[in-house]
């Protein structure tokens, strides 16, 4: 059985393996033991502290195979994207220009550095082993974070965003970076992403031009990257699109990948999840497949399970499910259909 749980310090070697295997552009998963150790400690502190409003907290989760004790995925929530430092992105908006004399009017798209999204909750750090891609466990790894938000709404903002990795070639070549960022940094795309993971994106935003970048002046290959998704990032995009997330006018500083946005109360796994209590049992006449979580904080757990759920009644779970979720008779349970 696979279970999603908060990361522990003992997970560091396996978390670094996941970071090493993750897609270029997932800057919140640096392949650096000290940075990952700090991430784990920050996450543990966030789970342990009482929180009454969203702040700098980060909640890092891992997907563990209970049979092998091997980690097969990870994901994270940052309670406030720009709490400690501005969360920079590029705003893609149109500028109007007109000539009354010639009776000509134009709308010209332009990119401007901004930190408009700094107050939002950020989903990041999504990575799953290739063998589990496009399975129910990808849904678990991504959406169980949303069930956690549903259980602890005061810890998170009224809106949630995530950045989807933009296009780059198999050899790490990004047409968008080459046309924009590389003019201000003598760095290839992969190295710039690595530095952002080790430090922050502030250094990049500070050196990028503070005036609009007019999109029609960029090479066509770079224009085509704006808002496009890396093939290996499409699943992360699709899962959240089904949750009600939508693209907006913001794109990533490095590769032009899209930003997804949703109002917290409207996200499917938050708005439509059900709560009940656990009832241990030995026989389940399964009628559907569900994401199921406990409502614990430090001991948060979530699994995929075949269940017979009837609204308003306790939820029967077998012994293995109860053990994975760390629940007993009468424990609060949250679930949503896959």
UniProtKB/TrEMBL annotation:
One of its GO terms (biological process) is L-arginine catabolic process. It comes from the Bacteria. Keywords: Acyltransferase, Arginine metabolism, Transferase. InterPro entries: Acyl_CoA_acyltransferase, Arg_succinylTrfase_AstA/AruG. The keyword Acyltransferase applies. Pfam families: AstA. One of its GO terms (molecular function) is arginine N-succinyltransferase activity. This is Arginine N-succinyltransferase. It comes from Pseudomonas putida.
């Amino acid at each position: 059985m696979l279970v999603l749980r908060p990361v522990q310090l003992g997970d560091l070697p396996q978390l670094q393996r996941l970071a090493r295997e993750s897609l270029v552009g997932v800057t919140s998963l640096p392949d650096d033991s000290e940075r990952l150790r700090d991430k784990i400690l920050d996450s543990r502190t966030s789970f342990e502290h009482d929180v009454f409003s969203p702040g700098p907290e980060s909640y890092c989760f891992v997907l563990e195979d209970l049979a092998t004790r091997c980690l097969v995925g990870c994901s994270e929530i940052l309670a406030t994207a720009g709490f400690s430092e501005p969360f920079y992105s590029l705003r893609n908006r149109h500028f109007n220009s007109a000539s009354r004399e010639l009776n000509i009017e134009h709308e010209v798209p332009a990119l401007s550095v901004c930190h408009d999204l700094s107050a939002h909750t950020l989903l990041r750090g999504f990575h799953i082993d290739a063998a589990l891609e496009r399975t129910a466990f990808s849904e678990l790894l991504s959406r169980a974070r949303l069930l956690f938000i549903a259980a602890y709404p005061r810890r998170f903002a009224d809106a949630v965003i995530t950045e989807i990795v933009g296009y780059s070639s198999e050899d790490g070549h990004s047409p968008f970076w080459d046309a924009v960022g590389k003019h201000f940094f003598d760095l290839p795309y992969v190295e710039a992403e690595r530095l952002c993971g080790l430090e922050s994106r502030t250094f990049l935003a500070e050196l990028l031009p503070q005036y609009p970048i007019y999109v029609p002046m960029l090479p066509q290959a770079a224009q085509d990257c704006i808002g496009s998704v890396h093939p290996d990032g499409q699943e992360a995009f699709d899962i959240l699109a089904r949750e009600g997330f939508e693209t907006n006018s913001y794109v990533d500083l490095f590769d032009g990948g899209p930003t997804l946005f949703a109002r917290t109360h409207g996200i499917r796994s938050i708005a439509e999840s059900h709560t009940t209590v656990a009832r241990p049992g030995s026989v389940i006449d399964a009628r559907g497949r569900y994401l199921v979580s406990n409502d614990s904080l430090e001991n948060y757990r979530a699994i995929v399970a075949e269940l017979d759920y009837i609204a308003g009644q306790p939820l029967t779970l077998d012994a293995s499910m109860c053990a994975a979720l760390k629940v007993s008779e009468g424990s609060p349970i949250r679930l949503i259909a896959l």
